[in-house]
Design brief:
The chain is of the alpha+beta class and 189 residues long. Helix content is 19%, strand content 26%. Keywords: Isomerase.
Length: 189
């Protein structure tokens, strides 16, 4: 699903969700059609600006399934920052927090990732302080471990683990209560 309300080809968009959004709701950050996970939607202009302004460098954590047995050296390189190409220009990513993790309990992906019987996969937790286009995918490819599945797990200190449900299903929407909104501000800024 594209993280936008307007149509683009045959892709599903936020407009396809079984939820009535206010007209002034805006997605904060983007997930491409191949990514999944936490997406904030808001009509709070202060929050939107704080989270979209690159100089504020709030954190976002992704759970990343990569092809192959990821090495400690690859994790060190990712943590230090790696050179990636964005629109034909070389860019060195800011240092990131990277660690190997056990496979998280996530819902099945639709469509499923490609499966190769003789090629193992690994999972990483990657916390960024910046958000370049397809950055995590470019970073893991730069160290020789292409991304197979990418799940945004948290934005700031708000994560998918905060909800009382085991794990939201793709397309689940929950409205933040005023109490939760206050908590979000306290945790994020």
């Amino acid at each position: 699903m594209l993280s936008q309300f307007s149509r683009e080809g045959d892709h599903q968009t936020l407009a396809d969700l079984d939820f009535t959004f206010a007209k002034d709701i805006y997605p904060v950050g983007r997930l491409d059609a191949d990514s999944e996970g936490l997406l904030l939607l808001t009509n709070d202009n202060f929050l939107k600006t704080k989270l979209l302004e690159p100089r504020n460098r709030h954190t976002r954590t992704y759970y990343v399934q990569v092809e192959g047995e990821v090495t400690d050296e690859a994790c060190r390189q990712l943590s230090s920052g790696v050179a990636i190409s964005i629109n034909g220009k070389q860019y060195k990513t800011l240092p990131a927090e990277v660690s190997k993790i056990e496979e998280p309990a996530l819902p099945e992906r639709n469509p499923p990732i490609r499966f190769r019987q003789h090629i193992p996969t690994s999972w990483l937790s990657v916390t960024l302080h910046e958000g370049k286009n397809r950055q995590v995918r470019r970073m893991t490819a730069a160290v020789g471990f292409p991304t197979l599945r990418l799940v945004r797990w948290s934005i700031g200190k708000i994560s998918l683990a905060d909800k009382k449900i085991k794990f939201p299903k793709p397309g689940d929407v929950w409205e933040v209560t005023p109490k939760e909104a206050k908590l979000f501000y306290e945790r994020t800024f």
